[in-house]
Specification:
By secondary structure, this protein is an alpha/beta fold. The protein has eight helices and six strands; from the N terminus they run ααβαβααααβαβββ. Iron/sulfur cluster binds next to helix 4 and helix 7.
């Protein structure tokens, strides 16, 4: 499989592979991807699979002497928005709103977290209502005028992704990016890559065999790099309708 992936990357080809669980698929595509000089998107079915790649498989290939820069890109709702958090905190102080359970934990955590990714705060229940009050979203974007722009976790994640050789994301964002690139807005949900994308097969719950998700080269269009309006406003060249912009994207 590694040889086939290496060849597909080198020739900008398309490759579809099915292999059983536990046979080493991840390493068989990560190693040739890391060894190539190309920027590669690895798309997984779930956040957990993406986290597993970054936390387990990437360290493994580093032990083998390969050291690609890697960024895990998740959807906006995974990241705390510093502006909304501060506004929510002030509303509590002034008595405008009653504090939702868990806000103390978030206020404490945000001072320590490197990523602002709620998976770094496992003590907060997945369905905690307070998260809705403080998360990033395309609907709450205000553009580069945000005073937290430079320290924003989304900004940092995007800059890191721009500089990374391997971007790990999920099928939802990957396919959204493809759809946006094929649209008229010129917008993107992921950084521009070379015409080589790799997707991680999706383990089947009913079979030890696996099936693949969506995979397609990601042709370059508008650079995903920081623009004066990113990460919360639409790209300068975008005409995407309000609320649907990927600019705070992913
Ligand atoms: S730049 Fe956007 S996501 Fe970041 S803190 Fe400001 S409003 Fe929130």
């Amino acid at each position: 499989m590694a040889d086939a992936v290496e060849r597909a990357l080198r020739e900008s080809g398309t490759l579809l592979i099915e292999a059983g669980t536990g046979t080493g698929k991840s390493l068989a595509y990560l190693i040739p991807a890391a060894a190539s000089a190309q920027r590669v998107v690895v798309s997984t079915a779930t956040k957990a699979l993406g986290e597993q790649l970054v936390e387990k498989d990437i360290p493994t290939i580093r032990r083998l002497g390969l050291h690609p820069d890697v960024t895990l890109v998740k959807g906006l709702s995974n990241y705390v928005c510093k502006r909304r958090l501060e506004e929510y905190r002030q509303s509590i102080v002034t008595g405008a709103v009653a504090p939702e359970h868990g806000i103390d934990r978030i206020l404490d955590w945000v001072e320590r977290t490197e990523t602002g990714d709620r998976s770094d705060l496992p003590s907060l229940p997945e369905d905690a209502p307070v998260w809705r009050e403080v998360t990033s979203s395309s609907e709450t974007r205000i553009g580069a005028k945000c005073r937290f722009y430079d320290e924003c976790f989304v900004t940092r994640m995007r800059r890191s992704a721009e500089a990374s050789q391997i971007i790990v994301t999920n099928h939802h964002l990957f396919c959204a990016d493809l759809a946006l690139r094929n649209g008229f807005s010129g917008a993107q949900a992921l950084p521009t890559t070379t015409p080589s994308s790799s997707t991680r097969p999706t383990p089947s719950k009913t079979s030890p065999r696996s099936s693949s998700g969506c995979a397609s080269p990601a042709p370059a269009s508008t650079p995903w790099s920081e623009t004066p309006t990113a990460p919360c406003g639409p790209p300068a060249s975008s005409s995407t309708a309000p609320g649907s912009s990927p600019s705070c994207a992913p």
